């Protein structure tokens, strides 16, 4: 796929060479209003946006001043103004107009700035903050542009997304105040992944903004739960200004909690797996310490324990014991805590990392469901996998159980037809960064050994990042990885000698296929 960001930058250089830093706009020689501090408090940044390369026209006939005032009525105190002309149909005229008309709002100039004199133009046009995209600016230029922003009293808003961006951000933050934004949208492909901001959140040295992709109040809530200080909402606000207030409230009424903590941890591990060019690995249906410790030693990232009627049902006391053993081992040097150490399959980590422990629940009102929730509230389980018939309702019930602190959780969708794909998309729109897909077998919740039809897996993979369960075993896991590039694979019955007992030879073969 063509790199859209490279094309935007190339065309912008052409326009700058032809039109200069004002891009043909009659920019005032002097700034007309004082600086209004940008994102002084936790809140939403709503965007004046006419179009985008991915969506085409969004609100081509918008009136920028009217929209900015509507945003202010919705509770926003910060507004982003897209000024890029070719691909987003913006203009510096929009920024000049809104900054002149709305004295109490703070404005971000959002564009693909490449030259230091564009900072001066942003200041004269009324900007209070300026977007600087780390990926398209080398470190010396980024530092110069950030310093130029601060010299005018404007805030440098530095956007990062890749590991290489973080060193630039760190250097800029040491030189002075900056605001960091993490874009869930890859500007090269325009693919959205909210787990990218989750993965980077703990690595950012300053106040932070979650950018792009949030179109519902629940998605905005998720961003705040991750610990972000602000959220930038573009298309959803510009296209439907009447919904802006609910989006703002979705963010500001939330708080950082254990749901956010869980997804930050999943994101961190997922990013590490990406560097190893492998998926996250979950081994499910564990019932005993020997199998659980071997799975951890072989490289499992998540361990699943079933709290439902099944030959794989977990004993809560054993789960507590397994958690204690794994936690104790994670405090030892790596050389002392890898157990399958002589196995060529093992990949000892640079630092011992305890797998995340997941409780698999089908009925939250059952005794087993309540056991799982209690273990999660006690910190024994890191998260709950809801494997019931109504994923949204199940997640809501887990929310109730978690109270104001939250419980890490995600849903399973049993995929049996194309109709189920819409449910997956609905969950994603509501801010669920990942949904685990399993095969639909009537009357059975999971652990069936049945694979999802490949056609449906392909459709799901094309629609978003894939977490995949259902019929995985040593004989097919490599072909699954090669064909569908799942971000997580989940195996249970395909690794057993009998239901509830893992076959250690099969487990080693399985991991050998994953790591080769």
From TrEMBL:
Signal peptide: none annotated. The keyword Lyase applies. It is an enzyme of class 5 (isomerase). One of its GO terms (biological process) is L-tryptophan biosynthetic process. GO terms for molecular function: indole-3-glycerol-phosphate synthase activity; phosphoribosylanthranilate isomerase activity. Its EC number is 5.3.1.24. This is N-(5'-phosphoribosyl)anthranilate isomerase. The lineage of its organism: Bacteria, Pseudomonadati, Spirochaetota, Spirochaetia, Spirochaetales.
């Amino acid at each position: 796929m063509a790199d859209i960001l490279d094309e935007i930058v190339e065309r912008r250089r052409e326009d700058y060479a032809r039109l200069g830093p004002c891009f043909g706009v009659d920019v005032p020689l002097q700034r007309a209003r004082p600086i209004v501090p940008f994102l002084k408090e936790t809140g939403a940044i709503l965007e004046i946006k006419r179009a985008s390369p991915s969506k085409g026209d969004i609100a081509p006939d918008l009136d920028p001043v009217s929209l900015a005032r509507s945003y202010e009525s919705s509770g926003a105190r910060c507004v982003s103004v897209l000024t890029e002309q070719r691909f987003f149909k913006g203009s510096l005229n929009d920024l000049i107009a809104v900054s002149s008309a709305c004295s109490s709002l703070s404005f971000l100039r959002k564009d693909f700035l490449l030259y230091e004199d564009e900072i001066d133009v942003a200041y004269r046009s009324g900007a209070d903050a300026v977007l600087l995209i780390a990926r398209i600016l080398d470190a010396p230029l980024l530092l110069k542009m950030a310093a130029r922003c601060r010299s005018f009293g404007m805030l440098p808003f530095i956007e990062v997304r890749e590991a290489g961006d973080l060193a630039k951000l760190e250097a800029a933050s040491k030189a002075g105040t900056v605001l960091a934004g993490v874009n869930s949208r890859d500007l090269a492909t325009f693919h959205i992944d909210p787990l990218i901001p989750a993965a980077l959140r703990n690595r950012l040295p300053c106040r932070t903004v979650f950018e792009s992709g949030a179109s519902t109040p629940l998605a905005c809530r998720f961003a705040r739960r991750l610990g972000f200080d602000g959220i930038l909402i573009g298309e959803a606000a510009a296209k439907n200004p009447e919904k802006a207030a609910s989006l703002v409230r979705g963010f500001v009424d939330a708080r950082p909690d254990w749901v956010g903590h869980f997804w930050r941890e999943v994101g961190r591990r997922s990013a590490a797996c990406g560097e190893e060019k492998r998926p996250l690995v979950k081994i499910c249906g564990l019932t005993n310490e020997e199998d659980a410790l071997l799975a951890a030693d072989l490289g499992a990232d998540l361990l699943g324990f079933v709290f439902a009627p099944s030959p794989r049902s977990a004993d809560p006391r054993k789960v507590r014991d397994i958690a204690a053993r794994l936690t104790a081992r994670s405090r030892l040097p790596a050389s002392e805590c890898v157990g399958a150490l002589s196995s060529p399959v093992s990949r000892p980590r640079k630092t011992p990392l305890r797998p995340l422990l997941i409780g698999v629940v089908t009925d939250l009102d059952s005794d087993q469901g309540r056991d799982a929730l209690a273990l999660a509230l006690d910190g024994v389980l890191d998260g709950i996998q809801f494997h019931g018939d109504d994923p949204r309702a199940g997640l809501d019930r887990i929310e109730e159980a978690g109270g104001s602190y939250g419980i890490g959780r995600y849903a399973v969708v049993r995929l049996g037809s194309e109709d189920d794909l819409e449910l997956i998309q609905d969950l994603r729109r509501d801010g669920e960064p990942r949904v685990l897909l399993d095969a639909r077998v009537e009357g059975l919740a999971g652990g069936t050994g049945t694979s999802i039809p490949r056609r449906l897996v392909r459709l799901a993979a094309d629609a978003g990042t894939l977490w995949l369960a259902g019929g995985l075993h040593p004989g097919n896991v490599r072909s699954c990885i090669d064909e569908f590039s799942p971000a997580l694979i989940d195996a249970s019955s395909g690794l057993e000698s009998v239901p509830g007992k893992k076959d250690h030879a099969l487990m080693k073969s399985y991991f050998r296929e994953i790591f080769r």
